[in-house]
Amino acid sequence: MTQSYFATVARGLEEIAAEELKTLGAENIQTVFTGIHFTGDQELLYRVNLWSRLIFRVLVPIAEIECKNSDQLYKNIQSIDWREYLSPKDNLAVHCTGTNYNLNHTHYTALGIKNAIIDQQREQTGIRSSVDINHPDLQINAHIENDRCSLSLDSSGGSLHRRGYHRAMGVAPLKETLAAALLELAQWTPELPFLDPCCGSGTLPIEATLKSLDIAPGLYRSGFGFQKWRDFAPELWKKVLNEAKQRQKFSLDAPIYGSDADRETLEEAKSNAAFCQIEEYIQFSRKQISQIEAPCDRGIIICNPPYGKRLGNTQELGLLYKQLGDVFKQQFKGWTAYILTGNKELGKQVGLRTSRRIAVMNGSLPCTLLKYELY
């Protein structure tokens, strides 16, 4: 049966996420701000959660109701038969976004929705679901816009950027979904050598390796929200899982390198790669920027050096950016380099002419992905 779905995604990544959904088999794709509407069957829902490298969550819309005020919201929430989705033995959580004139506090709106549901349960059975905001059996997402409330179920059970391998984390780690997006924006493909000279806890080389080996990123997660749902189809899920495991490759088309000057940070990167059982595929090394040399005659460099918002001093960092530019120019002729930065002045310190500037959000920080063709 075909169902409508909604994928949430970071601002600015809607189009590349829509392309990813298309490759996974989604239909009727329509992008909106920080999201994508699409349709498909239950198997597609499972496959998108398992395979998407770019999106945060897959929501399943179940109703849209009027909500001019809290009384109307309560009444219309109770008009839905929640037995279809929830047993009193299950626990739940309600997450709310958006406001209107009367419903202007998301926490209290979520509380009102929860109360309407458990009051219905009490009337029907005499018992009610408990609340578990961390590991609910059913997470309900409510979005208020004007006088309408859109209700959805969160099939992902937590943001998909949390692959599960970040057991060891640096001070300001790159989100896995953003790292995967940078690979797409840089048009990196597995037949090109890849290098991150500021690899930190290893997110970029790990994401590159997962893509190169055709490993589904969801394989490392402990579970998904839909696995607790009343309509969960274990055999269908087993089929999707087995197909993913059979697709995995066991050799790279081109080498993948990650280096960092800090010994402890590099150990974190190796630990994260080991959790994914891909440590043998990534050539990690401890190197200062000045020590880096091109391992071959062409490839892609992507790096996310500190830019003063979270780490480092901007004056000291200016020297780092200048050093990156010098090393790229002297050692990496024939390569293409990308630097993600949230500091325009630091970007100027690279001293190389950019061939492209791509606006990217790193969490709430507006950043730019700077492209350099190295001749």
Q: Could you characterize what this model shows?
A:
With 375 residues, this protein is α/β, with parallel strands linked by helices. It folds into 2 domains: 3-154, VC0802-like; 176-217 and 249-373, Vaccinia Virus protein VP39 (Rossmann fold, 3-Layer(aba) Sandwich). It is 32% helix and 23% strand. It has 10 helices and 14 strands. It has helices at residues 14-24, 42-51, 70-78, 106-125, 176-185, 203-212, 234-247, 263-275, 314-331, 344-348; strands at residues 3-8, 27-32, 35-40, 57-66, 92-97, 138-145, 148-154, 194-196, 256-260, 282-286, 300-303, 336-341, 356-362, 365-373. The chain has a 7-stranded mixed beta sheet. Strands 10-9-8-11-12-14-13 form a 7-stranded mixed beta sheet. Helix 8 (263-275) links the parallel strand 9 (256-260) and strand 10. The termini are far apart. It comes from Aphanothece hegewaldii CCALA 016. GO terms for molecular function: RNA binding; rRNA (guanine-N2-)-methyltransferase activity; rRNA (guanine-N7-)-methyltransferase activity. Keywords: Methyltransferase, RNA-binding, Transferase. Residues 44-155 form the THUMP domain.
Which short descriptors sum up this protein?
7-stranded mixed β-sheet; 2 domains; alpha/beta; VC0802-like; 10 helices; Rossmann fold
Q: How are the SSEs ordered, and which strands pair?
A:
Layout: E1 3-8, H1 14-24, E2 27-32, E3 35-40, H2 42-51, E4 57-66, H3 70-78, E5 92-97, H4 106-125, E6 138-145, E7 148-154, H5 176-185, E8 194-196, H6 203-212, H7 234-247, E9 256-260, H8 263-275, E10 282-286, E11 300-303, H9 314-331, E12 336-341, H10 344-348, E13 356-362, E14 365-373
Parallel strand pairs: 5-6, 8-9, 8-11, 9-10, 11-12
Antiparallel strand pairs: 1-3, 1-4, 2-3, 4-7, 6-7, 12-14, 13-14
Helix pairs in contact: 2-7, 3-4, 5-6
